[in-house]
Design brief:
Layout lengths: L18 E2 L2 E2 L5 H48 L3 E3 L5 E4 L8 E8 L5 E13 L21 E4 L4 E7 L6 H8 L4 E12 L10 E15 L2 E8 L5 E2 L1
Antiparallel strand pairs: 1-2, 3-5, 4-5, 5-8, 6-7, 6-9, 9-10, 10-11, 10-12
Length: 235
């Protein structure tokens, strides 16, 4: 009959207790029980680990949903100032020997007033897309001599723009051939008087429209404006 190795230690052949001669002795049957206990603890740790992770993940998702449910309605309340699409008006058509003039209308589609509104608009003639769309940076310059105004919700602000460069017959012909394009570029800078903490600093809108010629006659080249492929942004 083989002796139980779990009960054999140096200097002690008869296990009379658990602690003999300064060494701990496992009695028969206790080694397996000890292993079973360790296995149960490891199993519990494996089960609890994913459970705690799932709870933490659910808490984070609920926090994100709660923040979104608060921020989305607030964003709907803030002012939103930009060009009122389709309301551009050609006052003077493109014709050699005179400046072309266009009226542009901006609208506050938000629900709170836009204060300290500053607007800059230019009417330019340049290369058509895919050439880079023109952008104005006057609105971002604090010292720029731009008129300031307040725009209430659903109210509009209109201003006129005229070409500065000389227009000749070659320029008119190039626009009709789509070798050149008339751009209506502008920017708007404004502040939120009701919820200033929602967006630190002023809001800015950059817009770019280009003329699509529809007719040419005694009043010059007339047409409507569409969005440029680039150069339109809001914050």
């Amino acid at each position: 009959m083989q002796p139980n190795l779990a009960t054999m230690v140096s200097g002690n052949k008869e296990p009379g207790g658990r602690l003999e001669h300064g060494e701990w002795v496992l009695l028969e049957g206790e080694e397996q029980a000890l292993r079973d206990g360790v296995h149960v603890k490891e199993l519990g740790a494996r089960r609890n680990g994913p459970g705690l992770f799932s709870i933490a993940l659910i808490i984070v998702l609920l926090a994100i949903i709660a923040a979104a449910s608060v921020s989305v309605p607030l964003l709907a309340l803030r002012p939103w100032v930009g060009p009122w699409s389709g309301h551009e008006e050609v006052l003077e058509g493109l014709m050699a020997g005179r400046a072309m003039k266009v009226r542009v209308v901006l609208r506050n589609s938000g629900r709170t007033p836009a204060t300290n509104l500053r607007v800059a608009v230019r009417l330019l003639i340049g290369a058509p897309p895919p050439a880079p769309s023109p952008q104005l940076d006057q609105c971002a310059q604090p010292g720029a001599p731009l008129p300031q105004s307040m725009l209430f919700p659903d109210a509009t602000y209109s201003t006129n723009a005229a070409t500065q460069q000389e227009i000749d017959d070659d320029t008119v012909a190039a626009v009709l051939r789509s070798d050149k394009t008339v751009y209506l570029a502008g920017c708007a800078r404004y502040e939120d008087a009701i919820l200033p903490w929602l967006h630190p600093g002023p809001h800015q809108t950059h817009f770019c429209l280009m003329l699509v010629p529809t007719s040419a006659g005694n009043n010059g080249v007339l047409g409507s404006f569409v969005d440029c492929p680039a150069g339109n942004s809001v914050d």
